[in-house]
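Two records follow; treat each independently.
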Amino acid sequence: MKLHKSTMCGLYAVLELAAHADQQISAGEIASKYGISLNHLAKVLRSLVRARLIESVRGPGGGYRFCGNARRVTLLDIIKLFEDPVPDLEHAVPNDSEESRALHKVLIDIDDISVASLHSVSIMALLKVVESERRKAGRDPANPAAARG
């Protein structure tokens, strides 16, 4: 699945903020960590604020903070903010042959499965996968000695 740049920025921002839910993180820090344009990220962050997944904290030491429920917010929730995860195949039957109808039905089934999969992965579950990948790479924040080798 190929996601738009805005969607990827939104996913990175939510993951970063949810991983540090007790902190406020500036847009600049997020942009720098993920190599994202600050202007583009600012637009994405506004969408996430409007969706009430994050909140903006003004003033010295301000930034953004995750305010959603990491156990309930799913990948699909974020993807839907920036794009339609399922193309409209309902009206895209090119002709009335059996082959065309069969292919159309299979493609709709695949879309349904992908939507269900995206809906089943919470931010919390994805954060656990991130931590698992860090441990595999030897960057376990709970064990700084492992990172040094």
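The next record belongs to a different protein.
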Amino acid sequence: MKDFTKYQGVIPAFYACYGDDGAVSPERVRALVRYLADKGVKGLYVGGSSGECIYQSVEERKLVLENVMAEAKGKLTVIAHVACNNTADSRELSAHAQEQGVDAIAAIPPIYFHLPDHAIARYWNDISDAAPDTDFIIYNIPQLAGVALSVPLLREMLKNPRVIGVKNSSMPVQDIQMWRDEGAIVFNGPDEQFVSGLAAGAIGGIGGTYAAMPELYLKAWDLFYSGQLEKARQVQNECCRIIYKMCSAHGNMYAVIKEILRRSGGPDIGSVRLPLAPLAEGDSPIVDQCVAMIREAAAKY
């Protein structure tokens, strides 16, 4: 039996870190790792949606992971998302991730063309084969990938001994129960249902807003596992209200989050990469409101 305790906890999805010139900044990558490690998170999910992976080259994604591992190896659990929209690049990132010593790799299905299950299974298994000593996690995010994980596809993938579970970003909590019933460990994806996901049996959470307010998710985790479910629900409600406020801005949510992080005393990690929309005129008051809401909630709980 494998020991999955290293995956239990709050795992922020790592943000893309750019310099003022828009290039990936190794220094800012390392600064964000140190900041989150000091907050007490369990691990980091690198190179996923929050990492703007589809807008970065293979070499840029390698550069990000190398600098994350320079700070995090031996201190934090690291899951590297390695999927590209072709098998060769995905395998290259997979092999590189294993060389860097990550705990697991993860992958969405190929996007744009809707492939049959047998083609998706081959894609994932080919990626896994390039990192034969590393755990593999399926990333189910049908609202963006356009393809939903099915029970038959999961059963096929679990024949691969390296496949341990699912990062589940579909909204139905029922999906977490289904994947668990098949023998997979599951990470809750939607931040708005972190506590609900834990109640459904998720081993931990991987989320795009965690790094903006890690104290709140860590508090919700502690309250849930100490049996204080009503207080955990209250903290979850605070997180949801903050997320709704973030999403009310005109700029991309990650542009908003990065500015929240900076104004909250975290590292400056730049803006987002086009075509994602940067902060727009009128977004600044929303950012300030979010900063205040996070501080008030953290002080309250």
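Discussion point: The two ends are 37 Å apart (CA to CA). How would you locate this feature using only the token line?
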